[in-house]
């Protein structure tokens, strides 16, 4: 299926800000990484790959390092978390921007799903997340370095796919988490794949 143009309001790509989620410890490797939760929700800094450290900027600024980036991305997820939504973890993982993201979820049960995603990068301002289900598709801009993760509501009952195309110009990582939440905790559009324009 050919990617659909970014979903917009009046021609502008929608940038969504949402409520948070607890973060998992992510073990990064050179291509992509899977995450697992620590009891305190703090990512494991020692697991980051030193090989993904970027060169020191010519202006003498800080060096982008995966472990520090993971800490910032983890905080962005936690800032968006709403414990009143009674989130239940389905999946959490990370990937380097150069590898992108492609995840398919079956979405069983009757509780709504909430996808939280953020990115931390150097030389990358925005990534495009595409959510699809059957012949439906929506694209959203994810601004790297936001203080809170972006979140998207997806109804239960049908499989869906979340994709971020690889980006080679720049250095960065993507961190995401999928939860089910209470039905009465859904805010805004209840189906960000179908979209709620108009």
Explained architecture:
- The chain is mainly beta and 198 residues long.
- The protein is built from 1 helix and 12 strands.
- The strands form 3 sheets. Strands 3-4-5-12-7-10 form a 6-stranded antiparallel sheet.
- The N terminus is likely disordered.
Give the secondary structure arrangement, pairings included.
Layout: E1 8-9, E2 12-13, E3 25-27, E4 32-36, H1 66-79, E5 88-96, E6 101-105, E7 113-122, E8 126-133, E9 136-143, E10 150-154, E11 160-164, E12 171-180
Antiparallel strand pairs: 1-2, 3-4, 4-5, 5-12, 6-11, 7-10, 7-12, 8-9, 8-11
Summarize the entry for a quick read.
The protein has 198 residues and is mostly beta strands.
Q: What order do the strands of the largest sheet run in, or round the barrel if closed?
A: 3-4-5-12-7-10
Question: What is the rounded distance between the termini?
Answer: 25 Å
Shape: globular
How many β-strands, per DSSP?
A: 12
SSE string, helices as H and strands as E: EEEEHEEEEEEEE
Report the helical percentage: under 10%
Strand content: 35-45%
Largest sheet: 6 strands, antiparallel
Radius of gyration: 16 Å
> Multimeric state of these chains?
single chain
Detail the poorly predicted runs: 1-60
Q: Would you tell me the overall average pLDDT?
A: 78
Structural class call reads mainly beta
Number of helices: 1
Notable traits:
12 strands
């Amino acid at each position: 299926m050919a990617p659909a143009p970014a979903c917009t309001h009046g021609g502008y790509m929608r940038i969504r800000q949402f409520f948070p989620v607890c973060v998992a410890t992510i073990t990064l490797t050179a291509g992509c990484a899977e995450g697992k939760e620590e009891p305190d929700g703090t990512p494991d800094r020692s697991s980051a790959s030193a090989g993904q450290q970027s060169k020191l900027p010519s202006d003498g600024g800080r060096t982008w390092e995966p472990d520090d980036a993971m800490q910032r991305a983890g905080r962005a997820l936690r800032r968006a978390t709403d414990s009143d939504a009674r989130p239940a973890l389905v999946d959490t993982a990370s990937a380097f921007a150069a590898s992108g993201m492609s995840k398919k979820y079956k979405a069983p049960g009757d509780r709504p799903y909430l996808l939280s995603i953020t990115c931390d990068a150097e030389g990358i301002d925005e990534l495009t997340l595409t959510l699809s289900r059957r012949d439906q598709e929506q694209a959203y801009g994810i601004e790297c370095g936001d203080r809170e993760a972006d979140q998207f509501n997806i109804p239960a009952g049908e499989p869906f796919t979340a994709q971020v195309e690889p980006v080679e110009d720049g250095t960065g990582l993507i961190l995401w988490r999928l939860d089910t939440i209470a039905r009465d905790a859904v805010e805004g559009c209840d189906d960000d794949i179908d979209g709620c324009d108009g």
